C-alpha cells in the first residue's frame, strides 16, 4: 500500500533524512518512534507532500506519488490526522464531519462514524471549541475516515490524553485496520504502540535503525524506552 524507498530530505544544506525505507501494507498498523529531532515530523511532511527539498520515491497503492502536491496526495487516498487535530473551532462536531471531501468509496457515512464514535454522536451539536482533548482527537480521526482515505498517517494520537481515552483510540485503530486500511502511527508512547501495531520502526538521526515485529518490540520495551530517552 505505502512504499517509501530511499527517502532523503534537507533543510537548506542540512540533511534531515538519509535514505529512509518504510512500508505499510493493507490492514497493517505500523508505528514509527524516535527521539526529538530524529526526523519524524520531516518524514510526515515528506509523505503528505509539504516538504519540497526531498528525494527518493513514495508509492501509494502501486502509484508513484513522488513529487505530487499535497492536495493530489489527499485525493489519492493519503489521510493525515494532524497532531494539532485541526478542528474548526467555530463549527459543530457534525459540521466538522460534513466538510471533508470524499476521495474513495470507502468513505465512512455519518451513521458509521456515530456508531464507532458514540462520544461524537452525543456531542454532534457541540461547537469545536467546547470539545475535550479526547473528543478532538476522535473528531480528527473521524474526519479522515469520512474521506475514505486508504492510508492514515497519525501523528501522536495518544499525546496528552487520559489512559481511558488512549484505550478507546487503540480500539478505533484496530477497527480501522479491520477495514483493510493501513495506518502509519508516529508514536512515542511505546506501551500504546505495542497494543495496536503489527510492526515498528525506530528512527534515529534520519535513519531507520531498527525494524521490529510486535513480539520483539514488546521484549525490548525497556531498551527502546532508554533509546527514546523516556
Ligand atoms: N525548519 C527547520 N530548519 C532547519 N532544520 C530543521 C527544521 N525543522 C527540523 N529541522 C532539523 O531536522 C531534523 C529532524 O527534525 P524533525 O522535526 O523532523 O524531528 P522530530 O523527530 O519530528 O522531532 P520532534 O519529536 O522534536 O518533533 C533535526 O535535526 C532538526 O533540527
TrEMBL record:
BP GO terms, sorted: L-amino acid transport
Superkingdom of origin organism: Bacteria
Domain ABC transporter, first and last residues per copy: 2-230
SUPFAM superfamilies assigned to the protein according to its UniProt record, in alphabetical order: P-loop containing nucleoside triphosphate hydrolases (SSF52540)
Keywords: Amino-acid transport, ATP-binding, Nucleotide-binding, Transport
Single GO MF descriptor: ATP binding
SMART domains to which the protein is assigned, alphabetical: AAA
Family: Belongs to the ABC transporter superfamily.
PANTHER family: HIGH-AFFINITY BRANCHED-CHAIN AMINO ACID TRANSPORT ATP-BINDING PROTEIN LIVF
Protein name as it appears in the record: Amino acid/amide ABC transporter ATP-binding protein 2 (HAAT family)
